[in-house]
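RECORD TYPE: inverse folding
INPUT: structure tokens
STRUCTURE:
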């Protein structure tokens, strides 16, 4: 229990931040897991799967990046997971991973 007004305020802020971080982290984890599971079980099934793969990959990368930026996950952990997902995606469906960087 807080002894001062400042410590009471900090406790409230901590509760709010924890809730926000859990939400951001949860979204990132679920998007990553969906994409990871899709690529693990991927095969050459057709164009519909390619569109689904692109969508899942973009969603996972976006949510992991956001979680790193918002401190829901450590930045390096998010980067490492994105890197591993990209490596897996390129090995299974290289067409699903398009480079966003211009040369």
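DESIGNED SEQUENCE:
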């Amino acid at each position: 229990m807080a002894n001062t007004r400042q410590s009471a305020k900090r406790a409230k802020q901590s509760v709010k931040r924890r809730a926000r971080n859990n939400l951001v982290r949860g979204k990132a984890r679920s998007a990553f897991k969906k994409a990871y599971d899709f690529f693990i079980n991927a095969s050459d099934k057709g164009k519909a799967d390619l569109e689904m793969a692109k969508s899942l990959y973009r969603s996972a990368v976006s949510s992991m990046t956001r979680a790193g930026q918002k401190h829901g996950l450590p930045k390096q952990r998010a980067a490492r997971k994105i890197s591993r997902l990209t490596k897996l995606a390129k090995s299974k469906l290289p067409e699903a991973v398009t480079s966003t960087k211009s040369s």
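NOTES: The chain has three helices and no strands.
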